[in-house]
Design a protein that fits this description.
It contains 5 helices and no strands. It is mainly alpha-helical. The N and C termini lie far apart (about 50 Å).
């Protein structure tokens, strides 16, 4: 039971995350990402050198901001609709905050953290990960 505006935000967030998973899978199967491919947009090093870089960074900030607003909307709605669930909502908020802190402390995106975790599970002891120039994931342009 969430408000209509939060319901819309959840729907948009679900579509965005589904598309992101599909596009990451496509880039991974191709072992490269086009210049505006999802893996290129999710790289950890944000640049502000050119207008293009600033526009990509603005897009990232917008997407992450909308996702954060959706999470906040869910927590507020759940906490106000079901006061007995407020402690659970606070716990979820703490988990999300720790997740955010991990991304900030490591300087890596959630996508990179998951990829690294799965690589270490699937290929234990293998520390060689091919990368493109400047440590970024390979792109079609390289």
């Amino acid at each position: 039971h969430v408000s209509p505006s939060t319901r819309i935000m959840i729907s948009v967030s679900c579509i965005y995350h589904w598309a992101k998973i599909a596009l990451v899978s496509m880039d991974a199967s191709n072992k490269c990402s086009p210049r505006l491919g999802i893996m290129s947009l999710l790289i950890d090093h944000w640049c502000l050198d050119t207008l293009f870089d600033r526009l990509v960074t603005a897009k990232r900030v917008l997407l992450q901001g909308l996702d954060t607003a959706t999470h906040l909307g869910i927590l507020v709605d759940v906490g106000s609709t079901y006061p007995s669930l407020a402690p659970t909502a606070v716990c979820v908020a703490v988990v999300w905050s720790v997740h955010t802190a991990m991304c900030q402390v490591t300087g890596k995106s959630t996508a990179t953290l998951f990829v690294e975790a799965f690589k270490s599970i699937l290929h234990p002891g293998n520390t060689h990960h091919p990368k493109g120039s400047k440590g970024f994931p390979k792109t079609i342009d390289e």
